Amino acid sequence: MVKKAAKVAEGRTKEDRKKVRKTLGTLKSLTVQPVTKQRYQASLNQFYDHLQREGISLPKRRDSLDAVVSDYIEHLWSEGEGRSVASNLLAGLQDLDPHLKGHLQTSWRLMKTWTANELPNRAPPLTEGILKAVVGWAVFNQHFSFGLSLLVGFYTLLRTGELLDLQAWNIHMTSNSQPAVISLGLTKSGKRQGAAESVTLTELSVLKLLWFWKQQVPAHTYLTAKPHVWRQLFNECLQGLKISEWGFRPYSLRRGGATSLFVKCGSLDRVLILGRWTAVKTAKIYLNSGLAMLADLKIPQKLLQPFHTVLTNYLQGPPKLEQSLQKKRRTGGRGKKEFRGKKVEKCVDEFGGGPTFFILSVNLLEAQGHSGLAESWGAGGGYVFP
Q1: Rounded to a whole number, what is the distance in angstroms from the first to the last CA of the chain?
Q2: Is pTM, for the whole model, over 0.70?
Q3: How far apart are CA 385 and CA 89, in angstroms?
Q4: Taking a C-beta distance cutoff of 8 angstroms, is the pair 198, 183 a contact?
């Protein structure tokens, strides 16, 4: 993981400030975040490699560079490269030489044309209905903390990186029914303003689960698993629900949360505050494109409804965390049947509702096309109810 540049409070004395600034580095090195600098350098290296392959010399005069760069941007366009490669190149060149600003007019004009003619591949927004099905899948598979992280990300409009960095000590709560304040520190937008940021969670059902989680774990416990594990679970969830073709990504949580909040309250100001957007124009584009994409999300309810039922029953019972010890499955004959009976009792305890709920849920899973899940949960497998 790339280390981010830290911000520190100004020292009281000249010696204090000198000592602290020595650890930060030069002002020139602090103008761009290290992770951004890496993106710039990657695009620059790709540009230099292209020039070497084509036998083109890098111009030494600023007013001659524009023609070479604009030709390269045309090359990127024709080769199907992403727009970020070109934009990072232009930003990287101007970071290396600030005096290039104003000398790359043709190149920037091509970038503007690129933007106007090719819409960015934005993550589609998760609706609240899809979210509940996704969390229901997580509960069904006993990934309780993963499901909680999805709910927190959706209702607080967190960026994916912010969600993956969230620890128990960042969350301030006084009870399971009072709003939770989540401290985010110096975020993407906070760095620009030189101020730490926070968000407030008010969704009661989520507060109940978050309070329980916070009481059970040490202060420095992350809400999510390691980033690659969490992302893998997210993809497995989409596959399990049979909705991978709609192209949802982790950032769909933030987009969906913002769109859902705007539809509910109709207040752009409220969305701006919770989402921490500084530019109203950016937020409007964000919301308008999200609302337009909702019209194309025609996901059959039969794929979602079974997991809505699972989530509803879970929320009506006491909160739970993952169990660290799982019973090992025995194989063969009588032992297999006895184990399955115990497994059903455990499932009933986890989801609540007793044998009747279990049978109804299995039938519903089968009726809505999730026969594989129904079988894994015990349908037709010889489970024994006492």
Answers
A1: 52
A2: no
A3: 65
A4: yes
